[in-house]
Write a structure and sequence with these properties.
The complex is a heterotetramer, with 2 copies of chain A (about 100 residues) and 2 copies of chain B (about 450 residues). Chain A is mainly α. Chain A contains 4 helices and no strands. Helices cover about 75% and strands about 0% of the residues of chain A. The model of chain A has no long low-confidence stretch (mean pLDDT about 85). The chains are: A mainly alpha (about 100), B alpha/beta (about 450). The complex binds NADP nicotinamide-adenine-dinucleotide phosphate (2 copies). One NADP nicotinamide-adenine-dinucleotide phosphate binds next to helix 8, helix 12 and strand 5 of chain B.
């Protein structure tokens, strides 16, 4: 499944427009968790790192790959956990009162 | 590079990421957003792990365990440390992209498969990744106040940075034309790393929030570049979502400060020497916690305006106690959150939410301003620029034109801060000298604690 | 530039989300011209018809292709012209008054 | 299939289409939207024409000239005919997709290149294209009233249509498994054509607007299917934009009528027998053009509520005259446009715009309703269901729950219609028997003409 440059650009363009349109609608209330969520999503880079560390063609590549896996996993784990933690705090009203 | 099952999983993952962002737009669907994004991530990782090219899981497992070991504590930082965590996470994202780029470069170089096209995208990935890595680290350090938050400037700074970037890009172009010049590659990496530092050095602490959004955008673009290198639609799509969202957020913030993007990035605005001298000459009405408690409990309606100072003092839980006391007395309490108050976009909202303040009590600037003239007491907690009426009236003021919360229109204003020192923009605030303003000096957390004690009756004991 | 199925689906998914997000924001005022504009845009089918009529591998294909070119060109021309005609009518205020 | 230049032009064209849709969201950028879309189209067509596979331009030129010759007059239809033009254009879009699918099928069949995958997408394209073609034609005929606008129903209709579709799809699947069974292909085409007719027959004239949006969606999907057949990203992207926009529009309309999508498509709702009989027994206050002119010119504020009847009577220019007369007398005139008033989404707005009524005078339902109690005169022109208070109060009414314009809350109501006959939903409207309602019987165009004559003084002569 080779991806030619123009198709890649096509995907890039569509996703960029989409991102802009979606984000513009996000309530200001949620800008901080939004940022940590998009951050976590961009840790999808882990996919590329996994291939490198797993194909293991030579020592250098394996090491660089493993380091990249480490960096992205950190991002991924902390990004999702903290987003969820923040969102759990947003409550419309407290149960006891009103 | 990967099989049909893997590609199908990638497709579903991309769809889930998009749904996640869409669900993120409202608080009541936001939790679902995280679930969707996590599912997408698991599918993508699973799809990668089953692909036949992967021959050993040893290093992967090791690195993943290390990543989890660091990631879990990083997610447990206090919420006031969210900005620096974000910076760190961007640095890690950039690092991953940079490392993959470097590895791919040497792999292709050894195999003789380094086409012009591949060299071009690898150069792009490495430059973007490396500058995001060091830039993110530095931004994180500034936000955590591990180093001075003042802009570090010197003459000709913008020119030096610019030349550096041009040299790096020029070497990248040269490598693209002749990919065998492998000596130039480490130089590109090094220049990109240095450039990341230079990019952040001249930016002051209070501008960091905007910079953090920009770095988000760069981190996304690094993932896009990695997608071009690895020919992965998923990486391109997910990276572009991240990249564009960071960009849109930065624009929103710049607009809320009435500043241009270039001014934030290259302006080194708000230097300290701008502080006005005549501060001492005018009279200020100072009040005690007892006065404040009296005023607040007798008001029909109170609007609390939190700012950078509330975040720094970590006073949100005291603010919550105050809210409870006032609500118990039947006072209508609202929170007016300015879009650029705090240390990153939406940060005030998260802090107040952390203290369990229901989010329908948080009102946006445009909605509260028409109501301000009917408000009994405006309680300003560690905010300054975002309530400075000079933004409305004084054309010569550096913040002229920035939308503000019209605290001055309330019947009475109580302002909590430690001194008469100015805020980020380094300018005086006439509001604090106004007839209907009472100053309550001290650290926000301590002062509000005192007021709450008064209200709860402990203070009288 | 072959396009594999999964890439095609990728493009389809992104464009569908994008379309939904954009349209939801369109002012009700403009729903009729919006419909004629999207209609005109979908006459991009002309591109496929042109290839058939121009490659002319055999009589049947050529004829079907030419018919398809005719249908899409009609769409294209009338769609854009009428959209523009409708939009020209939307005026905020009249020049002479107020 | 095409070279790099062509593909680049296609990429730019897709970007321009997206920009066009974005710009279409506000009236002040909408004109630019058309320019962007046209440019995109020209680039795409140009890119195709320069590709080396094209060996002859003869047929192209001929067909294009014929297309322009038909397209230009089609763009000049009166604006009341926009709905039927839209239906026709969807039919043409479906036709183009169907034709290309048929041609590709026989081409590949002859070359022995008909893979399973190709057969599957061709079948999809042909079925979607053909049903859109006949469905669009029939919808157009109903909207133009070239045939009865009543729902044509018979027992077991939904089952027949469903079986037909299943047979067509089943044959398509069989062909995919064994693409050499070429005798089945024409049957698929035929069934799809018939299915398009059956889909539209049972739908009544007043539901056509929603159906038209759905057909928009089908036409877009046909283009997508063509994109899969021709392996063209541009077709897929542009088709998907069209397809999703049609779908979203239909959903918006269904919501505005408080009906479900399935109910619109398969419900054959609003049959004529539902007309209540007791209409004559109650008293109605009838007024003359003179009374109306008097009332309108003495009111402080007038809200005009146009409906289907105004479109049918083509009374928009008379309405404009009325607006001028009243504005001259200092009366504040607004137009309250219900989302499903008229013959297609947004149709009332276009008609009023055609008559040069500035669009900032057009107020949406949600914005006008809170104001209605302060309005002097609500002038209803050929509207019925969209002002029927039963939607608010009578749980048994078929329109219960549909949001309406609260004309009944105005101080005085003047309603122009030809008789006491009900509207689309076939139910009585208590508003017309209310104490503060005056009926003004007659054709909307004629009646408003009379009122305008009174106001301009001609009537007195
Ligand atoms: N939030 C963002 O995303 C963002 C991004 C870029 C720029 N900015 C800029 O940052 C500024 C934000 O405005 P702002 O009104 O929130 O803050 P500000 O104008 O910087 O003022 C903060 C005030 O808090 C007081 N303070 C500091 N520590 C305190 C403590 N422990 N207890 C009590 N008071 C304390 C300070 O006065 P004392 O020293 O006298 O106590 C200071 O005047 C704006 O100028 C904005 O343009 C914000
Ligand atoms: N717009 C859309 O997109 C859409 C889509 C689907 C369904 N619908 C349905 O269509 C209906 C639209 O509501 P509506 O209030 O606009 O229309 P309506 O309820 O159908 O009523 C139209 C009224 O106009 C009168 N009329 C017809 N010709 C006239 C003429 N020449 N001069 C004066 N009056 C004339 C008719 O009464 P007389 O016969 O007594 O004159 C009739 O009562 C709703 O029920 C809605 O659900 C609309």
């Amino acid at each position: 499944m080779k991806l030619d440059l123009l198709t890649a650009l096509f995907v890039f363009m569509l996703a960029t427009f989409l991102g802009m349109d979606i984000i513009r609608r996000v309530s200001r209330l949620l800008h901080t968790p939004l940022m940590s969520l998009t951050n976590a999503i961009s840790s999808i880079a882990v996919v590329g790192a996994l291939m490198l560390a797993g194909e293991a063609p030579d020592r250098l590549t394996t090491w660089l790959g493993a380091l990249a896996v480490f960096a992205s996993t950190t991002n991924l784990v902390s990004g999702y956990l903290i987003t969820d933690r923040m969102l759990r705090m947003f409550k419309r009203r407290e149960a006891p009162k009103s | 590079m990967t099989g049909t099952v893997t590609e199908t999983l990638y497709l579903i993952a991309a769809g889930l990421f998009i749904l996640a962002l869409r669900w993120m737009s409202r608080p009541d669907t936001a939790r679902r957003a995280v679930a969707a994004a996590v599912t997408g991530m698991l599918l993508a990782v699973g799809g990668t792990l089953i692909s036949p090219e992967i021959v050993t899981y040893k290093w992967i497992a090791l690195a993943a365990v290390a990543g989890i070991a660091l990631g879990v504590p990083l997610a447990r930082v206090p919420l006031t440390a969210v900005p620096e965590r974000t910076g760190l996470s961007q640095a890690f994202g950039g690092m991953a992209a940079g490392l993959v780029g470097v590895a791919k470069y040497y792999l292709w170089l050894a195999d003789g498969q380094l086409t012009h096209f591949r060299m071009a995208v690898v150069a792009g990935e490495v430059i973007l990744g490396c500058l995001t890595a060091t830039g993110g680290l530095l931004a994180s350090a500034k936000l955590a106040e591990w180093m001075t938050t003042r802009p570090i400037t010197y003459r000709g700074q913008n020119i030096v940075s610019f030349v550096l970037l041009v040299v790096a890009a020029g070497l990248g172009v040269w490598l693209t034309i002749d990919p065998t010049q492998s000596w130039a590659f480490p130089i590109v990496v090094g220049l990109a790393l240095v450039f990341g530092v230079l990019l952040i050095l001249p930016i002051g602490g209070a501008d960091m929030p905007t910079v953090i959004s920009f770095l988000n955008s760069y981190a996304g673009l690094s993932a896009v570049a990695m997608g071009f290198v690895l020919e992965s639609k998923l990486l391109i799509a997910a990276g572009a979502l991240d990249g564009s969202s960071g960009f849109v957020l930065s624009i929103i913030m710049c607009k809320a400060m009435n500043r241009s993007v270039t001014n934030v990035l290259f302006g080194a605005f708000g230097s300290v020497q701008a502080v006005a001298k005549r501060a001492e000459e005018r009279t200020v009405k100072s009040a005690t916690a007892v006065d404040a408690a009296e005023l607040l409990s007798n008001a029909d309606s109170v609007v609390i305006i939190p700012g950078y100072g509330m975040a720094v003092a970590q006073a949100q839980h005291r603010v919550r106690d105050l809210y409870d006391q006032l609500a118990k007395r039947g006072v209508d309490v609202k929170f007016a959150v300015h879009p650029v108050a705090g240390r990153m976009p939406g940060h005030m909202n998260v802090l107040l939410a952390e203290a369990d303040i229901p989010y329908d009590r948080l009102v946006e600037m445009d909605d509260i301003n028409p109501e301000m003239p009917h408000v009994g007491v405006a309680l300003i907690i560690g905010a300054n620029d975002v309530v400075n009426p000079a933004a409305r009236t004084d054309e010569k003021s550096p913040i002229y034109g920035m939308p503000i919360i019209d605290a001055d229109k309330a019947q009475t204003v109580i302002a909590i801060k430690r001194s008469m020192n100015p805020g980020f923009a380094g300018i005086e605030n006439d509001l604090y000298y106004a007839d209907n303003t009472l100053m309550l000096f001290g650290d926000a957390k301590a002062v509000i604690g005192d007021v709450v004690k008064q209200l709860s009756g402990e203070g009288a004991a």
